[in-house]
Structure formats: structure tokens, C-alpha cells
Backbone:
């Protein structure tokens, strides 16, 4: 029977599990893991990984009803959990490289990662870190890496599919919590990938041997041998391969939006000023803001400039990639770019549809503010989502909403109407009525030199 | 890869009892690691071997050159 507060997705590892106590995430360390845990501390691996920022630091705590645990630790809290299918190419590659770096560092101190799941990595701004503190086991020289196949399925296969084929493969990580199967990746990759010896080995031959190997014969067991030098060579080879993989954002309507819009410089400055004043008017500083349709994060950074953690969510992976590269360049710990299609947000997946949560479940109404600039017309006109539905959805995330009203006469709307019909209720009055059902109070400011207005709604 | 007795032996003999792991590594994954690891481990060992040879040569050359310089200095200082 699972403990009442155990997170639904934390059940696979017998070494411990994650639970919530008074809203804070903690990790239960089982007695069976005691010896390894103490060895990890003595080896200095924890200290090294903390110092490098590669592992979420933790402190030991004492909680009631936890007497049966060896230890309970409180790790650094992640402001917003994101999943690999919500990452851009650069984020997945950074997570892959970190996993390999950690494995190499662990081996140098006599340990090895017992799993290489992409769900073990989380981002705090631009920085990926391992969150599964109990993911280590003693390294026995000569033993193969138990997580090698998982690494290839969770990281290498999707990265290769983006490099060789199409960036849209990234979101297909949501179809299987076990990553991209090796045989599927092998079939989908072009024949030219066979000319790369690393890809040939780690994916194609790996898929062949996995398909033909006897998986269930436990009657004859002996030790396979991979020397430490050999395993190090494999890891370095994987590292070199992942580093060489590339994907470049292509020119897109959204990415060029801010350079080809109906905003004059004066309008843009005024819009920014209105949003800044709105954020500054909050009675208390929120811990999290969500910027839906945030493009490359220009306006998201109005929150981060005020030390508010903000997720920039956009359907265009090119925008997210560009935003991520900017956060990397600035070593930004406060802006988290994420891919999210509002018309089809990330589903809840895994066992009983509870291992990985929807964004709504992860935020649980705890965001301090939601922002939706230059978005309403796309949702209502392009995607035919009712105005009321948009308001209801946003209300599930926060009690404050900064939203831009884009009238039918706007040039961007006119472009949409070239191939669509304007919904009869697409009026400012209908907009106010729909939003007002979930956010009773509002103020509105017309942007100078523009027909658009910024509305600030509060529940 | 044909299912010859030798291959079957290799594959079955690759099963390893995991210590604290809970994921299924797959025997095929171990086979690939053995094969790739053998190749890469050999390359690393060869690299390390030649690097040591090269370092030895450089040290000896450097020592030889230093010895020759000392001899030249001694010769030039002799009236």
C-alpha cells in the first residue's frame, strides 16, 4: 500500500521514494540503501556533484511517521517540473550530456548510475540537474552499465531522430515513458546513419542484438565483462556523438513576430511599461509565473527581472530553442522555456495516467500570475476554442491574469481571416464577459498607437 | 546475427545479477557493450601505450639535449 503522501509516479525504485509533506517534496531513503548512501557520502561524490551544480543539493530532516526510513532528505525544490517532451532539442541534449558526465564522475569515485531516465533530470532556468539522489549503485569494475539501453532510448534515439529527421519527434516522447524503442529508432533513421560507426553501434546493432538476445534465460548466469577503460570509452564515445548532434531553428512566423508586427517602437515600449507596472502592483511577489504563447520570452523576462521564476510556454519549438539559448548565454536561473501546445497540452501518462502529470496538475493553482499576450485571437479564431473555455483554463493556474485583447480589425487577425471565418462572438464585450466569469475584477489599458489593450484580471 | 551456438553462449553468458538496479538492462545491451567496450578499450589502451612511449622519448631526448648542451658549455669554457 502506498503511503498517502507518496507521489504517484514514485514507485519503481526500491531504494526509496518521493513524497510531499506540508507541500514540500522530500525523499524517503530506505534502510536497504543505507550502506550505499553512507558510502556515497564518504566517497565525496555527493559533495562533488553539489559543487558542480549537477545534483539537486539536499539536507537531512526529521519528520514524524518516518521512523522506518534510514533517512529523510529534503532536496532543493524545483520551481516547475518539466518533462522531456516539453523540452527543445538543446535542453534534451544538455540533459543527455549531464547524465554522461555524472556517470563518468560517479565511476571515478566507485559508483555508477543504475538508471539513465530522462525524467531524472530537471531544469532550473537554463541549468539541468539530476534530481534522483538515490540513482547510484556501487560500480564493480568489469560490469557493463546497466542503464546503457535506457540512455539510448531516453536520450540518444530522440536526439538522433531530430538530427537526422524532424524536430517533431521530441514530442513523441510523451507516447512512451520508456523512451523511443531501439528497433523503432533504427527503422526511422535514414540509411546514411549507418555510415556513422557510433550510430551504427549504439542504435542499429544495439537494436538487432536486443531483438535477438535471450532475455528470460536466468538459469545460466555468469558475469559479462566490460573493462573500466572499455566502459569509459563507450561513455566518451556517446558524449562525443551527442555533442556533434545539431538542430537549428528555422525562420518561423512566431520567431519573426516581434520584428514584423503591427507594433511601432512606441507601442512596444508602452506595452512593456504597462506590463511592468501591472507586475509591480501585485501585493506580494509570486514564486511562479506562466507566460502562455511567450514566444522567445521577451515579456517573460519582465517577471524574471523582478526575481520571479517564469516559464515561457510556446507551441513553436524554434522559439523555445532560441529562448533556451538565450537563458544559457545569460546563465539565467529564472526563465524556463518549455514547449506547450495549448490546443493539445501534455497529457498525464504512465501507470494509471499518474506517473507524469499535466501542467495543470503540476501547477495546481499555485502560479502567482498567468500572462497571455497576443494569443487570444489564435486560440479563438485559429483553434475555435470558446472564449469562456480559454478563461476557465487560465483560471486553473492562477488568480491573476495579464491578457492582451486583439480586436478583429488588427492586422494579425485580418491575416488569419484570409482563410477563416470570424466567430460572431469575437468582440471585446464578449471577451470581457467570458474573462469576468472567472476573474471578476479587471483594469484595462489601451496600448498607445495600437488597437490592442492589456487587461489585468484578478479573481 | 545468426543464432549459432557460439552466439547463444555469448548472449546467455552475458546475464548479470543486478545489485540494486530495478530496470531491465537487456542481454543484448550487454553484448553490445562487450563488443564496443572491447574495441574502444583497446583503442584507449593503445593510445595510452603510445602516449607513454612518446613521453619517454621526449624525456630521453630532452635529457640527451641537456647533456649535449652541458658538454658544449664545458668545451666552450675550456681555455
Residues:
Amino acid at each position: 500500500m502506498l503511503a498517502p503522501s507518496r507521489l504517484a509516479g514514485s514507485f519503481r525504485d526500491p531504494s526509496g521514494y518521493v513524497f510531499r509533506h506540508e507541500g514540500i517534496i522530500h525523499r524517503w531513503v530506505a534502510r536497504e540503501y543505507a550502506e550505499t548512501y553512507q558510502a556515497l557520502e564518504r566517497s565525496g561524490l555527493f559533495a562533488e556533484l553539489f559543487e558542480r551544480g549537477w545534483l539537486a543539493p539536499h539536507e537531512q530532516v526529521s519528520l514524524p511517521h518516518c521512523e522506518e526510513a534510514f533517512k529523510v532528505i529534503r532536496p532543493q525544490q524545483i520551481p516547475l517540473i518539466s518533462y522531456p517532451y516539453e523540452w527543445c532539442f538543446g535542453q534534451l541534449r544538455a540533459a543527455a550530456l549531464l547524465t554522461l558526465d555524472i556517470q563518468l564522475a560517479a565511476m571515478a569515485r566507485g559508483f555508477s548510475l543504475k538508471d539513465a531516465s530522462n525524467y531524472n533530470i530537471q531544469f532550473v532556468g537554463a541549468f539541468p540537474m539530476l534530481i534522483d539522489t538515490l540513482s547510484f549503485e556501487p560500480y564493480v569494475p568489469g560490469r557493463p552499465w546497466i542503464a546503457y539501453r535506457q540512455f539510448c532510448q531516453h536520450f540518444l534515439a530522440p536526439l538522433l531522430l531530430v538530427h537526422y529527421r524532424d524536430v517533431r519527434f521530441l514530442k513523441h516522447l510523451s507516447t512512451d515513458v520508456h523512451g523511443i524503442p531501439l528497433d523503432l529508432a533504427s527503422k526511422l533513421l535514414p540509411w546514411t546513419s549507418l555510415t556513422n560507426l557510433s550510430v551504427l553501434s549504439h542504435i542499429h546493432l544495439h537494436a538487432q542484438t536486443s531483438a535477438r538476445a535471450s532475455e528470460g534465460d536466468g538459469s545460466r548466469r555468469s558475469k559479462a565483462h566490460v573493462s573500466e577503460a572499455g566502459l569509459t570509452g563507450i561513455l566518451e564515445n556517446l558524449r562525443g556523438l551527442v555533442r556533434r548532434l545539431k538542430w537549428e531553428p528555422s525562420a518561423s512566423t512566431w520567431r519573426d513576430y516581434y520584428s514584423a508586427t503591427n507594433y511601432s517602437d512606441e507601442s512596444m515600449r508602452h506595452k512593456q511599461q504597462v506590463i511592468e507596472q501591472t507586475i509591480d502592483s501585485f501585493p506580494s511577489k509570486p514564486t511562479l509565473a506562466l507566460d502562455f504563447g511567450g514566444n522567445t520570452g521577451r515579456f517573460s523576462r519582465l517577471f524574471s527581472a523582478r526575481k520571479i521564476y517564469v516559464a515561457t510556454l510556446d507551441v513553436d519549438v524554434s522559439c523555445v530553442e532560441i529562448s533556451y539559448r538565450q537563458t544559457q548565454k545569460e546563465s539565467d536561473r529564472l526563465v524556463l522555456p518549455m514547449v506547450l501546445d495549448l490546443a493539445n497540452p501534455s497529457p498525464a501518462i504512465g501507470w494509471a495516467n499518474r506517473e507524469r502529470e499535466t501542467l495543470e496538475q503540476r501547477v495546481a493553482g499555485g502560479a502567482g500570475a498567468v500572462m497571455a499576450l497576443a494569443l487570444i485571437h489564435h486560440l479563438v479564431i485559429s483553434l475555435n476554442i470558446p472564449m469562456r473555455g480559454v478563461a476557465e483554463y487560465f483560471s486553473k493556474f492562477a488568480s491573476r491574469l495579464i491578457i492582451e485583447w486583439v480586436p478583429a480589425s488588427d492586422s494579425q487577425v485580418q491575416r488569419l481571416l484570409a482563410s477563416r471565418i470570424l466567430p460572431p462572438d469575437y468582440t471585446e464585450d464578449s471577451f470581457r464577459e467570458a474573462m469576468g466569469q472567472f476573474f471578476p475584477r479587471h483594469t484595462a489599458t489601451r496600448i498607445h498607437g495600437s488597437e490592442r489593450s492589456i487587461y489585468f484580471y484578478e479573481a | 546475427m545468426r543464432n549459432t551456438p557460439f552466439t547463444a553462449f555469448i548472449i546467455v553468458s552475458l546475464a548479470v545479477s543486478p545489485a540494486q538496479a530495478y530496470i531491465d538492462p537487456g542481454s543484448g545491451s550487454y553484448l553490445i557493450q562487450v563488443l564496443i567496450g572491447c574495441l574502444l578499450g583497446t583503442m584507449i589502451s593503445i593510445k595510452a601505450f603510445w602516449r607513454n612511449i612518446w613521453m619517454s622519448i621526449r624525456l630521453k631526448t630532452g635529457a640527451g639535449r641537456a647533456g649535449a648542451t652541458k658538454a658544449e658549455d664545458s668545451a666552450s669554457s675550456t681555455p
Q: What stands out?
A: The longest helix of chain A spans residues 89-108.
